[in-house]
Amino acid sequence: MIDSPRCVIPDAKTPKQYQAFRISPSDSNRLAIVFDPTTDDISFTFCVEIFDLGGKTPPNRHQFAAEMFFILKGEGLATCDGKTVKIQAGDSILVPATGTHVIENTGSTRLYALTVMVPNEDFAELIRRGVPVELDEEDMAVLCRSDALVRC
Predict the structure, then answer these.
(1) Quick count: other Cβ atoms within 10 Å of Cβ 83?
(2) With contact defined as beta carbons under 8 Å apart, do 37 and 50 qualify?
(3) Cβ neighbours of residue 133 under 8 Å, at least 6 residues apart?
(4) The Cα angle at residue 114 between residues 51 and 45, in degrees rounded to 5
(5) CA–CA separation, 59 vs 130, rounded Å?
(6) What is the value of pTM for the model shown?
(7) Dihedrals phi, psi of 75, to nearest 5 degrees
(8) Angle ∠(49,57,61) on CA atoms, nearest 5
(9) What is the CA 148 to chain-centroid distance, rounded?
(10) Are 47 and 37 in contact (CB under 8 A)?
(11) Confidence at residue 145, expressed as pLDDT on a 0 to 100 scale
């Protein structure tokens, strides 16, 4: 008898279920966790990163993890190891492990990015130790997509 593959029920969440945090109270960006190892059976972290006007990440690097950003809305700059590129909605950025990087909102609206870190490298735990924050109407309008057939 051939073993059947394990049937996995998909873990589906709506933006209303995302938990959002500022890693530090003074940070100008927030992270809304979608999936992570602390609540889901996975080895990576997937979140929506929201940058306020003029907001940016502190320079940071990861020992083992690669980090990917997909820009949903807004514009800014992505810098890795001294090289800077302009970013806007639809752009993707891949930061290799050990690359010191910064994402900065230089636009006139908030900057929204899907952010994935593989492997997790304690990223979810760092986020969850931060300050809980609420997603506001502007955030929900972006996350629920005004062009979606079904609104969340």
Answers:
(1) 9
(2) no
(3) 20, 21, 22, 30
(4) 110
(5) 17
(6) 0.90
(7) -150, 160
(8) 105
(9) 20
(10) no
(11) 75
pLDDT in tens, 91-107: 999 999 999 999 999 99
Enter the tokens of residue 58.
């502190």
Three-state helix/strand/coil letters over the chain: CCCCCCCCCCCCCCHHHCEEEECCCCCCEEEEEEECCCCCCCCCEEEEEEECCCCECCCECCCCCEEEEEEEECEEEEEECCEEEEEECCCEEEECCCCCEEEEECCCCCEEEEEEEECCCCHHHHHHCCEEECCCHHHHHHHCCCCCCCCC
Distance set, CA 107 to CA 73, 76, 102, 146 (Å): 10, 6, 15, 21
Q: Which two tokens stand for residue 47?
A: 């979140």
Task: Quote the tokens at residue 59.
Answer: 């320079």
pLDDT value at residue 151: 57
150 token code pair: 């079904």
CA distance 6 to 95: 33
Which residue, 57, 12, 15, is CA-closest to 142?
A: 15
The structure tokens 């006139």 sit at 108
